[in-house]
Design a protein that fits this description.
By secondary structure, this protein is α/β, with parallel strands linked by helices. Helices cover 23% and strands 31% of the residues. The protein binds 1-O-pyrophosphono-5-O-phosphono-alpha-D-ribofuranose.
Amino acid sequence: MRTPDLSADVADVLVTAADIQTKVAELGATLSRDYAGRELTLVSVLKGALPFMADLMRQITIPVQIDLMEVSSYGGASTETSGLVRILKDLSSSIDGRDVLIVEDIIDTGLTLNYLMRYLRGKNPRSLKICALLDKPARRLVEIDIDYRGFTIPDRFVVGYGLDYGEFYRNLPFIGVLRPEVYGES
Ligand code: PRP
């Protein structure tokens, strides 16, 4: 993969930095209302959800604890749709009896979240819900109930605000569409 050119490699800005921040503030206010009087545990999935988690938690005005997981799907064409997920980093603390909200950057096929929901349900939380910044329904393979959604986006190759191509572009402050030449080149 050649060295990325952060501005030249983006064809379109799909969601501006300002629109992301407005939406994150709305989500934070909604969550603060919905969980009023309770404590909330935010569980984020590295690495893509890192900027969203960092911004969202600061827009929530009720007591919050955070935890981080890292997962990867098993590679290879035959396993791509199997939904098998490997846990690279597990929760640090028990979520038994806690109100848990999974914070994700994007739901694509839904396989990652489908696995995570089953895994986390097994740890006996009081409640378990999903907050996703981006929803790409065109690619869904398993049904996922998204409780809190930022933006529904078309089936395009998006990067930025945590989302990567070849581990780059995560630091863009907006959601952009990558030029097809870029991912055709590797
Ligand atoms: C992305 C994203 C979700 C998952 C969604 O993570 O953060 O976890 O893919 O895809 P799915 O709905 O098809 O399962 P990725 O595996 O790219 O890792 P990253 O967060 O480290 O970039």
